[in-house]
Amino acid sequence: MGWLPDESGLEKTAANYVPLTPLSFLVRAAQVFPEQTALVYGETRRTYAEHRARISRLASALRDKGIKSGDVVATILPNVPPQAEAHFGVPAMGGVLNTINTRLDVDTVAYIFDHAGAKMVLVDSQFLELAEEAADRMEGTAPIFIECSDDQAGRKASGRHMTYEELMESGDPEAAWDWPEDEWESISINYTSGTTGRPKGVVYHHRGAYLNAMGQVISWRMVLNPVYLTIVPLFHCNGWCHTWMMPLVGGTLVCCRDIQAKPIFDAIADEGVTHFGGAPIVLNTLINAKDGDKREFDHIVEVFTAGAPPPPSTLKRIEPMGFNVTHVYGLTETYGPATECTWKPMWDGLEGDERAAVKARQGVAMPFIENNTVMDPETMSEVAHDGETQGEIMYRGNGVMKGYYKDPEKTAESFEGGYYHTGDLAVLEKDGYIRIADRAKDIIISGGENISSVEVEGVIAGHEAVSLCAVVAKPDEKWGEVPCAFVELKDGCEATEEELIAFARKTLAGFKTPKKVVFKELPKTSTGKIQKFELRQEAKTL
Prior knowledge:
Blueprint: H1 23-32, E1 37-41, E2 44-47, H2 48-64, E3 72-76, H3 81-92, E4 96-99, H4 106-116, E5 118-124, H5 128-136, E6 144-148, E7 162-163, H6 164-169, E8 186-191, E9 201-205, H7 206-219, E10 227-230, H8 237-240, H9 242-245, E11 252-255, H10 261-271, E12 275-278, H11 280-287, E13 301-305, H12 312-318, E14 323-331, E15 336-340, H13 352-359, E16 364-365, E17 369-376, E18 381-382, E19 391-397, E20 403-404, H14 408-414, E21 420-428, E22 434-439, E23 443-446, E24 449-452, H15 453-460, E25 466-476, E26 480-489, H16 497-505, E27 516-519, H17 532-539
Parallel strand pairs: 1-11, 3-4, 3-5, 5-6, 6-7, 10-11, 10-12, 12-13, 13-14, 26-27
Antiparallel strand pairs: 1-2, 8-9, 9-20, 14-15, 15-16, 17-18, 17-19, 19-21, 21-22, 23-24, 25-26
Helix pairs in contact: 1-2, 2-3, 4-5, 11-12, 12-13
């Protein structure tokens, strides 16, 4: 289908076919925008010519340290220049980038080191002890540590490892890059938050990263030379691919290490930030900022928000401040946002709750997704466009992961029927826009972070006084949702809320620790299964 009768001599050649990769965006930017500011972090400012030279240094230095094509280089970094540089430098020498969540606990980091087989870790001084302890708990060979100190943030080098700048000094600014021979080659591996136990390694390819970055330019209505503020952690789905996207449009990447109101307002006012992404908690942070932290600015800032639908009250308060909010939805498995609530002119006259209700929907597929819909997982047929019939959100297209690393069974299960199954329940509105109705998995999304209720339950159940535990999401004005634990104690045993929270905190990362503990007999089915839907309803009233 679609072939001419005689296509002899019309094969792919080096002249007419080049594997897609976001690396090409930076090469072009260094040629077209050499003096344009590529990166800003406090007093640090680098042009595209300088940025490319540093990427070449990093790539060649990694090779000199023994990193080979296909090797995994991990990072444990906040949104600082080394993290942005690693997004290009690691794949530029054929490596695979693994950006690790800085908020994870030691055991999970150790598992990721082992599972991905990291050969080297670029680690911020703030998280060096976490990385070192994780390495001590590994089953396999520990990776090489390169310490990324940050004098601007008061994070001095420990002296225990080679520093990032020492590594860079050993590199060649003119070194050639290793280009992918196949666009299906892996560019990065990102670990989920372990919502069903151990985190899964989600593998991205160069083609998907390229098309995702290209498509989001359209979705965000970008023109040349935008100024993007890195509020979305660059360890989250590679910063939603936005770091790879900026060179495409000659944009400026403004690194924001501390996600607080003052540095965000300062960046908008002083650097002219035009775009940023973040969870609804970021919007609330700006709304509730102290008067002394707020700054005046005379332009509209475009915002992608995800993690949970932005509350109508938040949208009503943030937009008059100079922000235009677009709700997006996606998963690690879809390179971050892959669904957008595309605004239509017919909605321009909507105000208040009505406007917010339209904006809070998940929306329609972004340009790099071939199909994003809600289907009956049993029949694999699309549900009715009635806003009531529930089904599962599914994706098909170039913006879907290669699969789960070292887990072919889970990969095949997730791709059954030719679509990626998200596990999230939703309805289709009459206009075809998706609206999430519930989550099929017991995921708690707190400040944009996914939390496994199973993991939290397992920790609390380890307390000697606990008989049963069920953890659900409790609505929270600041974080969107927080873990709430319902606990049934053993006969004759006692425990306090404070005691159980402190017990959980010894094992869990802070954001995973329950913020509320309720003692009661848990509702169960006739087979003994805990009825979480009842607990969710109760949590809403606490």
